[in-house]
Amino acid sequence: MNLTGISEKREMIVKLLLDPLVALPYLSSSGTVLDIGSGAGIPGMPFKIARPEFEVHLIESKGKKVSFLRDMIRRLGLKGVEAYKGRAEKRDGLPTLFNSYDIVTARALAPLKKTIGICSPYLEPGSLLVTFKGSRVDQEIEDSEELMGELNFRISKKIPYSLPETEGERYLLILEKE
Length: 178
Hints:
Layout: H1 9-21, E1 31-36, H2 44-50, E2 54-60, H3 63-76, E3 81-85, E4 101-107, H4 112-119, E5 123-133, H5 137-150, E6 153-161, E7 170-177
Parallel strand pairs: 1-2, 1-4, 2-3, 4-5
Antiparallel strand pairs: 5-7, 6-7
């Protein structure tokens, strides 16, 4: 359906399945997850498949992608996962979701500073913001320090990693709301 721009099957497996699973060893085995800007369901769907105990909500602004997500949820027979059309910044326009989440994910959503601003209302003290960043991670962190302080975020983990057959630096960046 051309949801990601990736057309080669091996590249899909690496970038859309393996990449999000890098985060799982650093997360609890259950809880509530909100995937903001879910797109083709990444990382929310791989999280749900790998950790069926998660209760997952996927938010996506494009109707075509939401239809795809709902169809995949139905075809895979997944329970405890829902896809919603809307924008996280306009929380009032979304159906009643949890007041806060244990984990909020954002992959390829926006630079870190903007991501924190969008995701913060869905987090309470002890919750985690899980992001996937590239080689500019240190600059993004520096640009976000003031906002992190204002919104009570601290960097919990910054983990470099690599994926098979892909170049470039990658980082799993997990922020905790204090």
